[in-house]
Task: structure prediction
Amino acid sequence: MTFRGRVGPSSGTIANGATIATIPAAIRPPAGVEAGFAVARDSGVNPAVIRAEITDTGTLRIYETASQPSWIALDGISYWTI
Result:
């Protein structure tokens, strides 16, 4: 599975730990596996990254310790389903 594109709210920011999407069961990572990815995000001046995580229940969440992003890029998130 490979993701492409950019997601974010129509206004405001994405909260730390927010659920971005729920991946359908047929294409989720294998049970018991959590996959973490560093993905691009908006930033006022400098490039920045944020951690995206897909759990074995299909929850796609993001985590940021500083300022919350107004969008994140999904490009580069990929995994194999078994």
